[in-house]
Write a structure and sequence with these properties.
alpha/beta, Rossmann fold, 2 domains, 6-stranded parallel sheet, 4-stranded parallel sheet, 11 helices, 14% strand, globular
Length: 306
């Protein structure tokens, strides 16, 4: 493909999105060549590089070195650099201090649908006799499933009037594994599989509580978290090394200790029983979303950079 000179190229950067087993250095060199030819290259770093650790296999560390080389070239190709979380700014400073960065939090990719009839239909399908619905929205990756499984198993034991709704790709398999482990809860665990965005919105709204753990902690790059906030759902999540400081200070989410799954389940039971707390938490989450994450904030920042 040929590009005319003098264009602005906005690159949505994730190293493993460009093939070559996440080591597509030629693509990064091509970006650098476009800059040399007079193009304006803007790069949005959703992720920067694979982590390095003495505790992981040597091939993983080689991938970490390779993706850092890609980021090094890409940063030098960029006129403007954007990051999805402030932690990436600190990492990129190790590659160059000459490029200023702008934080662009990720908005929800599921629009809020105001459809009371659809929400009621989902609630009736899951809890026709009434009761509470605890949901999780995501893709059920290997680093999340085990944490979620332990919390949900404990929750189902503690809250007899609660059912679990697993929303998104991978939820059906997780439900199957939960039922094999605890068949007595089969009628209280539901999974949707992949749904259109409108149905995802209705399912999220139908939940009385969302439980959203993340292996590196909640952060502004987690779109599943943004969905819950934008839908004003009370949320339980966790802090980690990539979490921005405001998550522990904002009062808009409940923070659990994922090393103690029973304590997280107890926190969920407490939230389900206290409707006033749940409503205030959901409302605070929506205010947080409007202040930091709504698309209009992203557009405003981009306009300021243009």
């Amino acid at each position: 493909m040929r590009f005319p000179k003098g264009r602005r190229l906005l690159v949505q950067y994730v190293p493993h999105a460009y093939g070559w087993k996440a080591l597509n250095l030629p693509f990064c060199i091509w970006l650098w060549s476009r800059r040399k030819r007079g193009d304006s290259v803007w790069v949005m770093f959703h992720e920067v590089a694979f982590p390095l650790s003495r505790r992981q296999p040597i091939l993983h560390n080689l991938l970490g070195v390779g993706t850092r080389a890609m980021a090094w070239v890409t940063v030098r190709a960029a006129e403007r650099v954007f990051v999805s979380i402030p932690a990436w700014e600190d990492l990129l400073k190790g590659f160059t201090s000459a490029r200023p960065t702008t934080w662009l939090p990720i908005p929800s990719n599921i629009p809020l649908v105001d459809d009371a009839a659809s929400v009621a239909a989902w609630r009736n399908r899951i809890k026709p006799e009434g009761g509470k619905i605890v949901g999780h929205f995501g893709t059920y990756g290997s680093l999340i499933v085990e944490r979620l499984r332990r919390v949900l198993s404990s929750l189902l034991e503690k809250a007899q009037n609660a059912s679990v709704l697993l929303i998104g790709r991978g939820g059906i398999e997780m439900r199957r594994n939960l039922v094999v482990e605890q068949p007595q809860f089969a009628r209280r665990i539901y999974a949707t599989g992949v749904l259109p965005a409108t149905d995802v919105s209705s399912c999220v709204t139908a939940c009385d509580l969302l439980i959203q753990p993340y292996p590196d902690g909640v952060s502004s790059r987690r779109t599943s978290m943004m969905v819950g906030l934008s839908h004003a759902r009370p949320l339980i999540t966790n802090l980690g090394h990539l979490s921005e400081p405001f998550w522990g200070e904002c009062g808009a989410v409940a923070v659990g200790d994922w090393g103690r799954p029973e304590s997280v389940a107890a926190l969920a039971v407490e939230l389900l029983a206290d409707e006033g707390w749940s409503r205030s938490l959901g409302a605070a989450g929506r205010r947080l979303y409007d202040e930091y994450f709504d698309m209009r904030n992203t557009i405003a920042r981009l306009k300021n950079e243009a």
